[in-house]
Structure formats: structure tokens, C-alpha cells
Amino acid sequence: MTEQPELSDVLRDRREKLDRIREAGIDPFPHEFAEREEIVAVRAAHEGLAPGVETDSRHRVAGRIVARRGHGKAAFLDLRDGSGQIQLHAREDLLGEEAFERLVHLDLGDIVGVEGAALATRRGGELSLAIDRWRLLAKSLRPPPGKFHGLEDVETRYRRRELDLIANETSRRVLALRARTIGEVRRWLDERGFVEVETPVLQPLYGGALARPFVTHHNALDRDFYLRIATELYLKRLVVGGIDRVYELGKDFRNEGVSHKHNPEFTMLEWYEAYADYGKTARDLELLVAEVAERVLGTTTIQRGETAIDLAPPWRRMTLREAIRERAGVDIAERPTREALAAAMGTEPDPAEGWGKLVDGLLSKSVEPELVQPTFVLDYPVELSPFAKAHRSEEGLVERWEAFVGGMEIANSFSELNDPDAQRRRFEQQAAELARGDEEAQPYDEAFVEALEQGMPPTGGVGLGIDRLVMMLTGAQSVREVVLFPAMRF
User: Fold this and answer.
1) Are 217 and 225 within 8 A, CB to CB?
2) Among 14-28, 311-325, 383-397, 430-444, where is mean pLDDT lowest?
3) What percent of the chain has pLDDT over 90?
């Protein structure tokens, strides 16, 4: 792509400045700037400083120049680091003529380290540093976003996330909130005795979900491997091994379409607790989400568009049969035909899609968008849940729930199937679906069946989508807003 003439002029000017800096014997990219303070700490140390007060308190900070104003023998610069922003007051009599001139001729985007005393300006009482020393730490060879990069363009924001973070306070806030959310999720589980583990991302056989995998080839072993679609089967093998409370928080990969709620690489939490069932996991999930929201946001009430959503437990509970009958007018307990299910969605049945897949499609299209307030949808047909335990009182159903918030599924749970013979039959049924062309069906995994034959206690398991949880907490409308580098078309 050819540079626009205006941008080419700017790039050439910055390169010429770099050459002049080097000719003056100055290293424009030094190795370090030790013993700096974060700007947020400097601001906290002088909170409430009265306008016009000058202190003897010296500070050493570093960051990017994001604004500059002033003329003559004084100038003001705004400096931003990863924690916040502070105003620099630069005066020729403090810095000396040469150092002052070099400072005021820096470009926006240049990164500097400075030292100076704290003061509050007479007008407005803005906290500032009256700097008497400074050092260039990195010369910026491209202009900051905004003037040239047009970060109002959503595609540019996602493709060039570094520019988005430089320009947009909202994006930086979302990133910080995501990190805090993950930390609070871990804290909640750790405090309850769960053990965090890491299982293979590159797997000889994928499993644990109904999804199409990414395939790669291992040259040394001369065989295909798969990026994991879920951590479920490995984690349940650990339960067999005696880890009664176990979790993993990491990346899964599913070879599916990209949408406002789907990214092929996503962050998933799965936890498993021996001697629990899906009733226990539902209570835990609503407690976890509410407590994380309270600690991250200071409230359990979030905003989704014009709607206030209360995450405080207890959440509403309804069966899948009730949800579909209420929203789509179809009673799945009467086992409607594939054609009837497709007609309820306004489509033609796909020969590769089984009855259960069509029920799931009806749920996604007609029910899910309407479940704005937190809701558990319980008790699914066995065809949709190859790893869930048979319902203890309803024939043909399994003990499974999905949790919905803001019109989107955020979590999934089973009373886990621990009968190895029943699991073998489920695998055989899935293998038949796979042979009929369903690329999302579960392949047969004999190693997992053999693990169950060692004996797995009654177990409840949960999968919580971290990206979607962060969407809810931040009010984001697309998963691409909460994933730093989402999948994009090129």
C-alpha cells in the first residue's frame, strides 16, 4: 500500500530528527530508565494538593508524550505511562537552553524519562512535575494514532491493537478489567481448594465438545494432531486420578465462523468437582459470577444497552422444553420431526444435522437472544450431550444446564457421565454421526473410556467462557472488543 503524501512527509521528518539526535551523540534508544515511579503512585502521593502549592517532593517518571502546548521559555507536556497521565512543566531556566530546546522539539509519541518536583498549578490546581532533567528513551518514527490512522475505523482498531491502546482510554480500561476478572476467577476457585493444572493444547485426538477442530501435522512423529476444542476429557482423567477439585483456565480452538460472539481462539475456564452434580455447579456458577462482578465493578448490576441486568443470585431456572415451547411454540418432549424443527427456524433441514443439532439451532435462534436476565436452561436431550449423565427422573434427557446472560450463553455444565459402558455407547453414536458427515461430532476416544473404567466418582463440571463474561462486565457488544488480537479476514 502506497503511503499518502502527507504521512510520507511526517515519516521523513521524524527520520531526519532521529539522524540529528544521533549526530549530537545522543542514544535515541537507551537500555533502561531505572528506579522510576508509576504515575498513578505520584498522583496518589499528592492527592488534594492545593492550587499554587510547590513541593520539594521529587519524582522520576517515564512514558509517552501525548500532548504539548506553550510557547517562549515555558511549555507543558502530557506524559502517559501504563498507569495514568501527568502534566510536565518545562522551563528553560530549570533545564538549560539546549535541553529545553531539544525537549520542546520532540514529537508526540516519543517516550521520555523525566525528573522533577511536584506542584499544583495556580489555575485549576492540576498536579504537575516541574522537571529539571529529562532523557529520550525511544524515538517514535510514526505519528500517534488519530490524525493519520483513523481509529474510528473498527477494523483498524482490531488489526492494530497497539494503536487502539495508545489512542483509546476505553480499550485500556477493558484490558485492565479483563485482567482483574481473570485474577478474581482464579482467586475464587483457589480459595475453595481447586487445583489449577495445564493439559495438552496439542492433542492426538480432540474431544470434550461438539465442534470442528483445527488440524496440524507433527513432522517428527509423522502424524496429525489437533488444537484442543476443550479441556474436559483430560481434566476428568485427573479426577479419576484423585484430584477431587481441578480447573484449567486457558485457550481452546474451534474451527468455526467468526461473529460478534465467536472467535476461533477463545479463553475458557473448566472446573470439575468430585461428588457434586449439576445442581451444585449451578449454585457455584451464580455465586462466582456475582462475586467477581462485585469485586471488579463494585456492583452486581451491569448494563446491557438500555437494560440493567442483576447478576446477584438466585438466577432464574427453566427447562429446555419450557424455554423452546415458550419462545418457539414447539414441544420437544413430543419429539417433533427434523422438518418441524427446521420449519420453526424458518430453514430447510440439513441432511448432515441430526435431530439434536436442530434442537440446539432452535435454542440458539429463538430462545437465547431473549434470555437477557441471568437464566439457567436445564435438562437437554441426550443427543446434545455425549458426556452428561442421564437425567435421574426424565427419560431421554441428561442433567445439563447452560447459563445465559444478556442474550448470550456464558457457561455450560453437566452431571458428568461416569459409567464407562454408557460412555462407550455415546461415543459409538457420535462416531455414527461423524461418519454421516457431521464434522462437529465427537470421535471415539478409547483412552478416555479406559480411564472411566478405573472408576470416576460422581462429578459436576462447568465450562465458563471468559471472553463472554468480560463482554458482560464491560458492556462490550462484540467479542472482538475484549480479545486483544481477534481473528480477522486479510
Assistant:
1) yes
2) 430-444
3) 78
Query: Three-state DSSP class for 92?
Result: helix
Give per-residue pLDDT as tens, 156-196. Answer: 888 899 999 999 999 999 999 999 999 999 999 999 999 99
In eight-state DSSP terms, residue 370 is: G
167 and 145 Cβ atoms separated by less than 8 Å:
yes
Going by their DSSP bridges, the two strands 74-80 and 85-91 should be labelled as: antiparallel
Task: Return the bridge partners of 408, or none.
Answer: 405
Nearest of 147, 148, 65, 142 to residue 102 by alpha carbon = 65
Compute the distance between CA of residue 162 and CA of residue 46 in angstroms, rounded to an integer. 31
One DSSP character per residue, 259-301 reads BTTB-SEEEEEEEEEET--HHHHHHHHHHHHHHHHHHHHSSSE
The per-residue pLDDT for range 239-287, each reduced to its tens digit, is 999 999 999 999 999 998 888 889 999 999 999 999 999 999 999 999 9
What pLDDT sits at residue 1? 42
Under 8 Å between Cβ of 343 and 349: no
* 3-state class (DSSP) for residue 119: strand
214 alpha-carbon distance from chain centroid: 21
Read off the pLDDT band of 6 (50, 70, 90): confident
Please name the residue ranges forming H helices in 24-146.
39-45, 92-95, 97-104
Give CA–CA dist 91/153, Å, rounded: 39
Which pairs with CB-CB distance under 8 Å and at least 24 residues apart come from 68-72? 68/104, 68/106, 68/108, 70/104
Q: How many CA atoms lie within 13 A of 307 on its CB side?
A: 13
Q: Are strands 215-218 and 223-227 parallel, antiparallel or unpaired?
A: antiparallel
Determine the Cα–Cα distance for residues 300 and 138; give it in Å rounded to an integer: 43
DSSP 339-386: HHHHHHHTSPPPTT--HHHHHHHHIIIIIGGG--S-EEEEEEEGGG-T
The Cα–Cα gap between 358 and 354 comes to: 7
Check residues 237 and 336 and name the one with the higher pLDDT: 237
DSSP 105: T
Q: How far apart are CA 3 and CA 166, in angstroms?
A: 21
Distance of alpha carbon 427 from alpha carbon 449, whole angstroms: 9
